[in-house]
Design brief:
The protein is built from two helices and 15 strands. The protein starts with 14 loop residues before the first helix and ends with a strand. The chain is an alpha+beta fold and 327 residues long. The strands form three sheets. Strands 1, 2, 3, 7, 13, 14 and 15 form a seven-stranded mixed sheet that branches. Strands 5, 8, 9, 10, 11 and 12 form a six-stranded antiparallel sheet that branches. The protein has two domains: 118 residues, no CATH class; 181 residues, no CATH class.
Length: 327
């Protein structure tokens, strides 16, 4: 008689353990991938911020009247890039000045604790994955403006544009200022500033373009409808504001409403005081004496709103630029 033996499950013993081990390996790998990918994206975002800030800082240096050297551009880009990283460390691999009017900054990983050029504490290293280096690039571009909108309806004589960082008292249609007689010939007014006829979207805006004539406004009074602009009780924010205003080279030789001004520059001007007429006065330090009518302020470098100004030149046309990041 044949004996029937009971089936044995010995051959299946340990299968669950193998399966659990395999699944653990898969889960650890998936977890490492998720965590490490997040770390990589976070690092790249920091490096992009660092590259953007470094490019803008180098551009600000190099677009100035004094220009910049490669060493100076490297130094300012590195300092600003480090300050825009969470751990205060990033590697600025290069600062490229080879294209006129542009600065390109390239950054890469630098561990804030070890100064290693790769990401540390990566979970995937437990799976024998290699270290990771992340990088980012940003290009900042600047152009000197050629056409734009001035919120102040005035134009400066060329001798008044002194980009020296000092405040100047500029009188309407000349007066007794020290630059009288220094302008080119064919001037309607010697020195000072003159009013332009508003032609923009708002009542006091002036659209002006380098290489074109702008129409003058009649007389020495503030153009009609613009008095509130200079009234400190209505517009208290004007004092201390930096604006872009045009500068002329010569006129058509006429005066009054027939005067036209050839625009050749745009100037950044920080307006600090004025005495024009009636309530159009803000002169807390008594800059203007007697019957003097004029504007007091400082010519300063100015980054214009790209929506209001058009850049067109990489060589200076004053001290106003339009800037932007090229990704």
């Amino acid at each position: 008689m044949q004996r029937l033996s009971k089936p044995s499950d010995a051959r299946e013993r340990g299968a669950a353990g193998v399966l659990v081990a395999v699944m653990m390996l898969v889960l650890i790998g998936a977890g490492a991938l998720a965590v490490d990918t997040g770390q990589i994206y976070a690092e790249r975002a920091q490096l992009q911020n660092a590259a953007d800030a470094g490019a803008l800082a180098a551009m600000d240096l190099c677009s100035g009247s004094g220009g910049c050297t490669q060493a100076n551009a490297n130094g300012v880009a590195t300092a600003i890039a480090d300050g825009n990283s969470n751990d205060g460390k990033s590697t600025v691999q290069s600062v490229d000045l080879s294209v006129t009017g542009q600065v390109t900054v390239t950054t890469s990983t630098k561990d804030g604790a070890t100064s290693a050029g790769f990401l540390s504490k990566m979970f995937a290293s437990a799976l024998n994955a290699p270290p990771v280096t992340v990088g980012a690039t940003a290009t900042a571009k600047w152009q000197y403006i050629t056409k734009g909108v001035s919120i102040l309806p005035l134009v400066f004589a060329p001798c008044e544009f002194q980009n020296d960082g000092l405040p100047h008292k500029i009188l309407i249609q000349g007066g007794g200022q020290d630059c009288n007689g220094l302008n080119p010939s064919n001037q309607a007014y010697r020195g000072g500033f003159a009013w332009l006829k508003p032609n923009g979207t708002h009542p006091c805006e002036v659209i002006a373009e380098i290489g074109s004539y702008s129409d003058g406004s009649t007389g020495a009074a503030v153009p009609s409808g613009c008095l509130e602009l200079f009234d400190p009780t209505i517009n208290p924010g004007l004092a201390g504001t930096t604006v872009a205003v045009p500068v002329y080279s010569n006129t058509n030789g006429l005066t009054g409403s027939n005067a036209k001004y050839m625009i050749t520059k745009w100037a950044g001007f920080k307006i600090q005081a004025w005495n024009l007429t009636g309530q159009a006065k803000y002169d807390p330090a008594n800059i203007f004496g007697g019957s003097e009518k004029g504007i007091y302020g400082t010519f300063v470098g100015y980054s214009a709103d790209p929506s209001l100004f058009t850049g067109g030149s990489v060589t200076p046309t004053g001290n106003v630029i339009v800037i932007g990041l090229i990704k």
